[in-house]
Every structure is written in C-alpha cells, then in structure tokens.
C-alpha cells in the first residue's frame, strides 16, 4: 500500500507572462487620432500659409503671386512708407494704453466683485456683455456716441455748455484715442472675468493670515495676491496683446482709417494692399511684420511660463 503520508509534490508557480509596455507612439492612441484633424489644420493652414506668405513677401507679386524674387525691396518700401509708419505708431499707442488701462480697470472691477457684493451676477453680466458683441457693432455704437452732431457733444451742449467740444473721431490728432475708448469698453469685461477667476482661486487662509499680521488691503494685493496670480496675469496680457496686433474691425467701423490715414493700423494696411491696391508683395511683407509682432509678444510669454522653472 502506498504511503499516504508521502507529501504530494507542489506545482511550481509559472512566471507571469511578461507584457511589454506599448511604444510611446501608440500611447493614448484614441486621443491622438481625435487630435489629428486639428494638428493637420494647424500645420497646413497656419504654418503652411505663414511660410507661403513669408516666401512671397520677397517677390514683386502684384495681382497674382509669382516667383520673381527681389530680396528685401518690399520691406524697404514698407518701412519708408508714411502710411505704414502711421499705422505702426497708432497700434503702439493703442496697444500700450489698452494694456495698461484694461489690466487696471479689469483688476479693479474684479476686486470689487470678489467682495461678494449684492447682485454680483447682474453686475458681472453687465460688464461682460460688451465682449459678446462683434467689433463691428461696438465700432458703430461708439461712432454714434462720439459723433458731435448727436452724441456726447450734442447732449452736453444741450445742457448749457455751448463751448464744449468732444469729437475725437473727427480730429486727426486724437482719433486713435476715440478708438481706444471703444476697445476698452469691449475688452475690459473679459479681463475682469479672468482676474475674478484668479482671485477666487486664492485660498481664504491667505487673506486671514494677512489680516492677522496687520497687512493693509492695498499691500496684500500688491505684495501677496498679484504675485500668486502670475499665470492669470500672463494669460490676460497675451490675450489682450494678440487682439491689439490684429485690431481692424473697430477702425473700419468707426473711422475707416480716417480722417485721411490718421487712424490707419497694420491690419488695414495689409487688407488694402492685398485687395484694393492689388499689391500682393507689399501686403505679404506687411503681414510678415505683423507675424513678427506676434512672435515678439509670445517670447516673453513662454519665458515667463517656462523659462524660470528649474527642472526637477
């Protein structure tokens, strides 16, 4: 009889089958496939058209593009043209003042709403509503408001101030400031909402600690809150700057570039060169310079976002 006490040999555990991780190119494949149309669109339309524009800016193309290269002739003509210089000066004035006042007013309104005042939703909607309008509508509205025949000047004079004068859209010296008023009215609400979102992201303990330490409200904002909102501030600056470079609709709706060429901007110069004067080479050169302006804006953005971070 076999010895039942003899231990039965145990089955050795077979090693688990080695599963190789998928190649990097096949990771998150569904997401990559879904993003393919967007990537192709960006490469073909943005990158491809930008390269095509830059290449043909070195030609003397007129009505139709042609590969007759003339070097930097188009750029020399561009920077020696009075109209282009006025356009660059206007966009510089509009841009600097728009950045300063939009950020200041937007942050001020955000701080007021952050105090959880009554009817906050109503005020937020009122301030943000102009941004929902197209620039053409905004331009036409402010063209009526600033018209001396039935706008602000007419109303003030009807109240007894017969010598009051306020006609910025008809004065070549200050016409760009009339356009700036409309731009501030439309863009400040967006900055306010961005700033408000940043303020609502500040922990409540920060405010309590500052209050316990006896730090005043103004100093708390300037020394504590604003440094913590750096990503929000940079995002707002980039959005405003991108809109400044391509400002076109407001100018067309309010002044059409006038009086004369006093309110011309680079985007309008490009449009007129391409479609009115049928000078493709000059229009492409101006477009390339606008692209350079955008790159100049993006370089500080990427530096502020990624340049100062140390690798972990």
UniProtKB/TrEMBL annotation:
Pfam families, A to Z: BPD_transp_1
Name of the molecule in the record: Glucose/mannose transport system permease protein
Main localization (coarse): membrane
Comp. bias regions, Polar residues: 1-11
GO cellular component terms, semicolon-separated: plasma membrane
PROSITE patterns cross-referenced by the UniProt entry: ABC_TM1
Protein's cellular compartments: Cell membrane
Keywords for the protein's UniProt record, in alphabetical order: Cell membrane, Membrane, Transmembrane, Transmembrane helix, Transport
Lineage: superkingdom: Bacteria
Lipid bilayer topology: Multi-pass membrane protein
